[in-house]
Amino acid sequence: MDALLEMKGITKRFGGLTAVDQVDLIVKKGEILGLIGPNGAGKTTFFNILTGIYRPDQGNIQFNGTDITGFKPYQIANQGIFRTFQNIRLLKDYSVLDNIKLGLFRQTKAGAWSSIFGLRRSREEEKKVAEESWALLERLGLTDLANEAAGNLSYGNQRRVEIARALVSHPEMILLDEPAAGMNSEEVESLSALVRQIRQQGTTVILIEHNVGMVVELCDRLVVLDHGVKIADGDPNQVVANPAVIEAYIGGQEVTEVVGD
Length: 261
Ligand SMILES: Nc1ncnc2c1ncn2[C@@H]1O[C@H](COP(=O)(O)OP(=O)(O)OP(=O)(O)O)[C@@H](O)[C@H]1O
Ligand SMILES: [Mg+2]
Prior knowledge:
This protein is an alpha/beta fold. It folds into two domains: 1-80 and 171-261, Rossmann fold (3-Layer(aba) Sandwich), CATH 3.40.50.300; 87-170, Rossmann fold (3-Layer(aba) Sandwich). The chain contains ten helices and ten strands. It has a six-stranded mixed beta sheet, sandwiched between helices. A four-stranded antiparallel beta sheet has the order 2-1-4-5, covered by helices on one side. β7 (173-177), α7 and β8 (204-208) form a beta-alpha-beta unit. α3 packs across α5 and α3 (96-105) runs parallel beside α6 (155-167). The structure holds adenosine-5'-triphosphate and magnesium ion. Residues 43-44, 86 line the site of magnesium ion (MG). This is Amino acid/amide ABC transporter ATP-binding protein 1, HAAT family. InterPro entries: AAA+_ATPase, ABC_AA/LPS_Transport, ABC_transporter-like_ATP-bd, ABC_transporter-like_CS, BCA_ABC_TP_C, P-loop_NTPase.
């Protein structure tokens, strides 16, 4: 098996709360893996561990044959792992194009400002950055919005710009945290097509999503977290039919509907 990512016994505690509890995960190169689970299950925390925002209290992370446990975020980026955030993090007053260019530089120590204002870069570098960013805009169908302030875009398009910003570095692996949140069904379909295209270009994808219909349709495999524990891992259709998974979702939901007479 061609394991790109191998995580073993990953545990993260916040005080008395175990947000991620002894999770093992293997991701194969070229896979689209869906990570699902009820609110508070530990999904985003899992991404924060994988991207070096948190160091796991226990466990080990191997990526591409390198032990990356405890790596800082920029070191993780240097390994080719990029992400989007559950709460969109764009510079709202800057253009779509500038936001994407930023993706090429924020993993370096040179910093964000020099990238926006073109400091410390040669003309050739500047040209290359502009070309790469523009090519991505074309690929994502965002060229008409290139000079628009990111904050003026629809929710769905802002999420696409976030994905573009992660893609501009040609990631080995991309982590998408609820990319379909706030999208209508048409936008969700075009997002799924984009994710398939990303995989086709050789990037491995992990996707956190509450839209179960979308993940079953799109993902090669689903992993389910509940209270930080991995409760299922396998074929999407089988996973969503698994009684423990159904219970995890229903158990967390308040019953608001009253059957009256
Ligand atoms: N920095 C933190 N400090 C303390 N508790 C935290 C912190 N980050 C997350 N938690 C807690 O860890 C648990 C898991 O949170 P996490 O955000 O990972 O869940 P999630 O599965 O992404 O949920 P959602 O679907 O709502 O985004 C929650 O109980 C949350 O309150
Ligand atoms: Mg989350």
